[in-house]
Specification:
single chain; alpha+beta; 13 strands; globular; disordered C terminus; electron transport; membrane; transmembrane helix; transport
Protein backbone atom coordinates (compact mmCIF):
# COMPACT_ATOMS: atom_id res chain seq x y z
CA UNK A 1 0.00 0.00 0.00
CA UNK A 2 2.79 2.38 0.90
CA UNK A 3 4.52 1.52 -2.38
CA UNK A 4 1.41 2.36 -4.38
CA UNK A 5 0.99 5.66 -2.56
CA UNK A 6 4.61 6.57 -3.26
CA UNK A 7 4.26 5.74 -6.95
CA UNK A 8 1.11 7.87 -7.23
CA UNK A 9 2.92 10.75 -5.52
CA UNK A 10 5.81 10.43 -7.99
CA UNK A 11 3.42 10.49 -10.95
CA UNK A 12 1.65 13.60 -9.67
CA UNK A 13 4.98 15.35 -9.01
CA UNK A 14 6.27 14.59 -12.51
CA UNK A 15 3.04 15.79 -14.10
CA UNK A 16 3.13 19.08 -12.21
CA UNK A 17 6.84 19.62 -12.90
CA UNK A 18 6.41 18.89 -16.59
CA UNK A 19 3.52 21.33 -16.83
CA UNK A 20 5.60 24.06 -15.22
CA UNK A 21 8.62 23.49 -17.47
CA UNK A 22 6.66 23.63 -20.72
CA UNK A 23 4.05 26.24 -19.81
CA UNK A 24 5.74 29.42 -21.04
CA UNK A 25 6.09 29.19 -24.82
CA UNK A 26 4.33 30.97 -27.66
CA UNK A 27 2.58 27.78 -28.72
CA UNK A 28 1.17 26.93 -25.30
CA UNK A 29 0.71 30.33 -23.67
CA UNK A 30 -2.76 31.88 -23.67
CA UNK A 31 -3.14 35.51 -22.69
CA UNK A 32 -6.18 36.44 -20.66
CA UNK A 33 -6.80 39.82 -22.26
CA UNK A 34 -9.03 40.45 -25.27
CA UNK A 35 -6.26 42.05 -27.33
CA UNK A 36 -4.61 39.93 -29.98
CA UNK A 37 -1.08 40.22 -31.36
CA UNK A 38 0.25 39.63 -34.85
CA UNK A 39 3.41 37.86 -33.72
CA UNK A 40 4.99 36.01 -30.84
CA UNK A 41 8.58 35.00 -30.21
CA UNK A 42 10.16 32.76 -27.60
CA UNK A 43 12.94 34.99 -26.36
CA UNK A 44 16.48 33.65 -26.23
CA UNK A 45 16.98 33.78 -22.45
CA UNK A 46 15.19 33.36 -19.11
CA UNK A 47 12.32 31.38 -20.63
CA UNK A 48 10.49 34.58 -21.61
CA UNK A 49 8.05 35.27 -24.43
CA UNK A 50 7.04 38.41 -26.30
CA UNK A 51 3.71 38.83 -28.06
CA UNK A 52 3.80 41.95 -30.20
CA UNK A 53 2.25 43.96 -33.00
CA UNK A 54 4.26 46.66 -34.74
CA UNK A 55 2.33 49.61 -36.18
CA UNK A 56 4.43 51.23 -38.92
CA UNK A 57 1.87 54.02 -39.36
CA UNK A 58 2.68 55.66 -36.04
CA UNK A 59 5.96 53.84 -35.31
CA UNK A 60 4.73 52.06 -32.18
CA UNK A 61 4.71 48.55 -30.81
CA UNK A 62 2.10 46.86 -28.60
CA UNK A 63 3.58 44.12 -26.44
CA UNK A 64 2.73 41.45 -23.92
CA UNK A 65 5.96 40.32 -22.30
CA UNK A 66 5.89 37.27 -20.02
CA UNK A 67 8.48 35.74 -17.72
CA UNK A 68 8.57 33.78 -14.47
CA UNK A 69 10.15 35.79 -11.62
CA UNK A 70 11.84 34.41 -8.52
CA UNK A 71 9.46 33.94 -5.59
CA UNK A 72 7.82 37.33 -4.98
CA UNK A 73 10.34 38.87 -7.37
CA UNK A 74 10.14 41.20 -10.35
CA UNK A 75 10.13 40.96 -14.13
CA UNK A 76 11.17 43.71 -16.51
CA UNK A 77 11.04 44.54 -20.20
CA UNK A 78 12.35 47.64 -21.90
CA UNK A 79 13.73 49.24 -25.03
CA UNK A 80 17.05 50.90 -25.72
CA UNK A 81 16.79 53.26 -28.68
CA UNK A 82 20.58 53.43 -28.91
CA UNK A 83 20.78 49.68 -29.50
CA UNK A 84 22.64 48.86 -26.29
CA UNK A 85 21.88 46.68 -23.29
CA UNK A 86 20.61 47.60 -19.86
CA UNK A 87 22.31 50.97 -19.46
CA UNK A 88 20.20 53.54 -21.28
CA UNK A 89 17.15 51.30 -21.50
CA UNK A 90 13.67 52.61 -20.79
CA UNK A 91 12.15 49.82 -18.72
CA UNK A 92 8.85 48.62 -17.33
CA UNK A 93 9.31 46.68 -14.08
CA UNK A 94 6.43 44.71 -12.58
CA UNK A 95 6.39 43.49 -8.99
CA UNK A 96 4.13 43.30 -5.97
CA UNK A 97 4.19 46.52 -3.99
CA UNK A 98 3.82 46.88 -0.22
CA UNK A 99 0.03 46.60 -0.52
CA UNK A 100 0.44 43.18 -2.13
CA UNK A 101 -0.86 44.34 -5.50
CA UNK A 102 1.05 43.75 -8.72
CA UNK A 103 1.94 47.02 -10.43
CA UNK A 104 4.31 48.37 -13.09
CA UNK A 105 6.86 51.12 -12.42
CA UNK A 106 8.81 53.07 -15.03
CA UNK A 107 12.60 53.07 -14.84
CA UNK A 108 15.26 54.98 -16.75
CA UNK A 109 18.18 52.58 -16.33
CA UNK A 110 21.17 54.87 -16.00
CA UNK A 111 23.30 52.59 -13.80
CA UNK A 112 23.51 49.07 -12.42
CA UNK A 113 22.20 50.03 -9.01
CA UNK A 114 20.64 52.74 -6.87
CA UNK A 115 17.93 53.68 -9.38
CA UNK A 116 14.45 54.91 -8.59
CA UNK A 117 11.23 54.89 -10.61
CA UNK A 118 10.40 57.87 -12.79
CA UNK A 119 7.08 59.41 -13.78
CA UNK A 120 7.83 59.42 -17.50
CA UNK A 121 10.22 57.66 -19.85
CA UNK A 122 12.05 59.16 -22.81
CA UNK A 123 9.71 57.08 -25.02
CA UNK A 124 5.95 57.44 -24.76
CA UNK A 125 4.07 54.54 -23.18
CA UNK A 126 0.39 53.83 -22.72
CA UNK A 127 -2.02 51.13 -21.53
CA UNK A 128 0.63 49.82 -19.13
CA UNK A 129 -0.53 47.01 -16.85
CA UNK A 130 0.52 43.61 -15.50
CA UNK A 131 -1.03 40.35 -14.43
CA UNK A 132 0.15 37.14 -12.81
CA UNK A 133 -0.90 33.65 -13.86
CA UNK A 134 0.55 30.18 -13.17
CA UNK A 135 3.78 31.63 -11.77
CA UNK A 136 4.42 33.94 -14.72
CA UNK A 137 4.00 37.71 -14.85
CA UNK A 138 2.89 39.43 -18.06
CA UNK A 139 3.51 43.11 -18.74
CA UNK A 140 1.21 44.79 -21.26
CA UNK A 141 2.12 48.10 -22.88
CA UNK A 142 2.13 50.27 -25.95
CA UNK A 143 5.47 51.93 -26.71
CA UNK A 144 6.27 54.70 -29.19
CA UNK A 145 9.47 54.02 -31.11
CA UNK A 146 11.33 57.01 -32.61
CA UNK A 147 10.65 56.93 -36.35
CA UNK A 148 14.29 57.42 -37.29
CA UNK A 149 15.69 54.91 -34.79
CA UNK A 150 17.25 52.09 -36.80
CA UNK A 151 19.09 50.24 -34.03
CA UNK A 152 16.49 49.68 -31.32
CA UNK A 153 17.12 46.81 -28.92
CA UNK A 154 14.98 45.18 -26.27
CA UNK A 155 16.13 44.02 -22.86
CA UNK A 156 14.34 41.84 -20.35
CA UNK A 157 15.18 40.54 -16.91
CA UNK A 158 13.96 38.92 -13.69
CA UNK A 159 15.18 39.46 -10.15
CA UNK A 160 14.35 39.65 -6.44
CA UNK A 161 12.47 42.32 -4.52
CA UNK A 162 14.57 43.63 -1.63
CA UNK A 163 13.11 45.92 1.06
CA UNK A 164 10.08 46.58 -1.12
CA UNK A 165 12.10 47.58 -4.20
CA UNK A 166 13.55 45.74 -7.21
CA UNK A 167 16.94 44.35 -6.20
CA UNK A 168 19.93 43.44 -8.36
CA UNK A 169 19.40 40.47 -10.63
CA UNK A 170 21.78 37.53 -10.96
CA UNK A 171 24.72 37.87 -13.34
CA UNK A 172 24.44 34.38 -14.77
CA UNK A 173 24.72 33.46 -18.43
CA UNK A 174 20.97 33.63 -19.00
CA UNK A 175 20.69 37.05 -17.35
CA UNK A 176 23.56 38.52 -19.35
CA UNK A 177 22.07 37.17 -22.59
CA UNK A 178 18.67 38.79 -22.05
CA UNK A 179 18.75 41.30 -24.91
CA UNK A 180 18.17 41.34 -28.66
CA UNK A 181 17.07 43.54 -31.53
CA UNK A 182 13.48 44.71 -31.09
CA UNK A 183 11.36 42.71 -33.55
CA UNK A 184 9.17 44.55 -36.01
CA UNK A 185 11.34 47.67 -36.18
CA UNK A 186 13.99 48.66 -38.68
CA UNK A 187 16.53 46.91 -36.51
CA UNK A 188 14.81 43.56 -36.97
CA UNK A 189 12.24 43.27 -39.72
CA UNK A 190 9.81 40.37 -39.45
CA UNK A 191 7.30 38.90 -41.86
CA UNK A 192 3.68 39.46 -40.79
CA UNK A 193 1.90 36.52 -39.20
CA UNK A 194 -1.83 35.87 -38.85
CA UNK A 195 -3.23 37.71 -35.84
CA UNK A 196 -4.27 35.39 -33.03
CA UNK A 197 -4.33 35.17 -29.26
CA UNK A 198 -1.09 33.23 -29.11
CA UNK A 199 0.56 34.71 -32.22
CA UNK A 200 2.93 33.15 -34.70
CA UNK A 201 6.57 32.41 -33.90
CA UNK A 202 9.08 34.78 -35.49
CA UNK A 203 12.81 35.18 -35.62
CA UNK A 204 12.86 38.41 -33.61
CA UNK A 205 14.64 37.64 -30.36
CA UNK A 206 16.26 34.42 -31.49
CA UNK A 207 13.86 31.59 -32.25
CA UNK A 208 16.73 29.27 -33.23
CA UNK A 209 18.41 29.80 -29.89
CA UNK A 210 15.17 29.38 -28.02
CA UNK A 211 14.55 26.15 -29.90
CA UNK A 212 17.92 24.86 -28.77
CA UNK A 213 17.22 25.99 -25.23
CA UNK A 214 13.87 24.23 -25.36
CA UNK A 215 15.53 21.02 -26.52
CA UNK A 216 18.09 21.25 -23.73
CA UNK A 217 15.30 21.87 -21.26
CA UNK A 218 13.42 18.81 -22.48
CA UNK A 219 16.55 16.65 -22.17
CA UNK A 220 17.15 17.99 -18.67
CA UNK A 221 13.56 17.32 -17.72
CA UNK A 222 13.69 13.76 -19.05
CA UNK A 223 16.94 13.10 -17.21
CA UNK A 224 15.49 14.57 -14.05
CA UNK A 225 12.39 12.40 -14.26
CA UNK A 226 14.43 9.24 -14.85
CA UNK A 227 16.68 10.06 -11.89
CA UNK A 228 13.67 10.54 -9.61
CA UNK A 229 12.12 7.27 -10.81
CA UNK A 230 15.35 5.32 -10.33
CA UNK A 231 15.89 6.71 -6.84
CA UNK A 232 12.32 5.92 -5.84
CA UNK A 233 12.59 2.46 -7.37
CA UNK A 234 15.67 1.88 -5.21
CA UNK A 235 13.69 2.77 -2.11
CA UNK A 236 10.86 0.45 -3.13
CA UNK A 237 13.20 -2.47 -3.62
CA UNK A 238 14.74 -2.11 -0.14
Amino acid sequence: MASQTLLVSIAIFITLFSSTVHSLTCKSQKLSGSQTYANCTDLSALGATLHFTYNATNSSISVAFSAAPPSNGWVAWGVNTAGGGMIGAQALIAYKHSDGKLAVDLYNLTSYGGIDPVKKLSVDTWDVSAEESSGAVTIYAGVKIPAKADNVSQVWQVGPVVSGKPGKHDMGKENLAAKSALPGTAASAVAPAPASGSGGNTTGGGSNKSGAASLMGERFSLGFYLTVILVMAGFLSM
